[in-house]
Specification:
The protein has 70 residues and is mainly α. Helices cover 66% and strands 0% of the residues. It contains 4 helices and no strands. Helix 3 crosses helix 4. It is globular. The N and C termini lie far apart (26 Å).
Length: 70
């Protein structure tokens, strides 16, 4: 039995379904952005890529946490 994702990752199935792109692509986009601050990245995903606030926030939080090892 697979554990249910918790935290930001719990949004990933609905993000993939709604926007039609795998999470790895969203993470690559975030990592390739010249922006580095959490809210700047959230705003960028919302305005440039049409994500909702919760989805953008979850992607940014998870990606930044992975990159900082927290």
């Amino acid at each position: 039995m697979t554990a249910t994702p918790k935290g930001p990752a719990s949004y990933f199935p609905s993000i993939e379904k709604k926007y039609g792109r795998p999470i790895s692509e969203w993470k690559d986009l975030i990592r390739s952005s010249p922006l580095t601050k959490h809210m700047e990245l959230v705003t960028w995903l919302k305005t440039e890529h049409g994500l909702g606030h919760g989805h953008a926030n979850a992607l940014v939080a998870h990606t930044l946490a992975e990159d900082t090892g927290t």
